[in-house]
Amino acid sequence: MEFETWWLIGIPAFFALGWIAARIDINHVVYESRSLPRGYFKGLNFLLNEQPDKAIDAFIEIVKLDPETVDLHFALGNLFRRRGETERAIRVHQNLLARPDLPQEHLVHAQYELGQDYLKAGLLDRAEETFNLLVDTSYSAQARRALLEIYQREKEWERAIEAAQALQESGAGGRQKEIAQFYCELAQDELVHNDIDAAVVLLEKALAVDRTSVRATILMGDAFLAKGDTEAALATWRRVEHQSVPHVALVAQRLMDGYRAVGRPQEGAKLLKFYLSEASSIDLLEVVFKAVLELEGVDAANQMVSDELRRTPTLLGLDKLLEARLMEAPPSMRSELSMVQNLVHGYTQKLARYQCGHCGFKARQYYWQCPGCSKWDTYPPRRTEELNVMN
Fold it and tell me: pTM for the complete prediction?
């Protein structure tokens, strides 16, 4: 390899150019940092130390000195909203929107933040109006999500369906389960008003959107029962087994009542015992226990509960076992056994809760939509103690 003499000049020159460029960048950063107000760094420091009140005071001082600081206006508005001071947040974002020189990018951002302020303040009409202005902008997906939340809060299920479908078509993710739930809400209203045919049409739409919708299947069975077709209702409720075996517990009482109504209670009890063997459940055990007690007697109920307790040891199961034992206990032992059963029963009432898998909200009854986080289909159909044993 031949040595080129110009390398002796070129290599030092490249190093010199790199050093000059680095110095220029450093000087530029230093210049920019010096041009920022001291209050800016004070505010950041307060935020990092989780002192939002002092951070707000520092940022307010900067905004007074330099009203053109758009980014600080956004920071202030978000801080006010997080603290629950929605009126001040609204004023900050309204002041931004009133500026004639605001670039389009910041204008759209300010509108979105104002919509969030209205939403947090519960001013749903104003929030809806604001987000509708953003549907055809770069904030389209965020605006549609916010509109979907508003329609759910207002229980405007038809508009919620439209919003969810628009979100889905825009490529923002599948919304089939939510749309099916909205159809179920509409169907449930029709069932309450005894318009069975309208409810069936809505439930068929729900199942067309989501074939795995357990709620739609349960409500469809309810609709057939309301029409007086118990056999069709039973056949429909039995389809829950193919959608989700654990959810069978939610229709167990319906199934048992239906089989009694058609004069085949033994068939119903046999079916429910089969379901119990497939998926252990306290709620299902409760229904099966009563059915076996009625149809086969105390000894059979006692044995059934005892076998289930060995398979899935829970205090809720022990409560049922003590109840069964109390029925056949001699008079001399009933007082003591009753005291134990009452103590266990009192404690199990605290464990007999459903728990949201998203936010952890606990409730005595089963919800399709969590009251805590408003998410759909987040409750497992089993009580918290059962889930703990299984895990």
Answer: 0.75
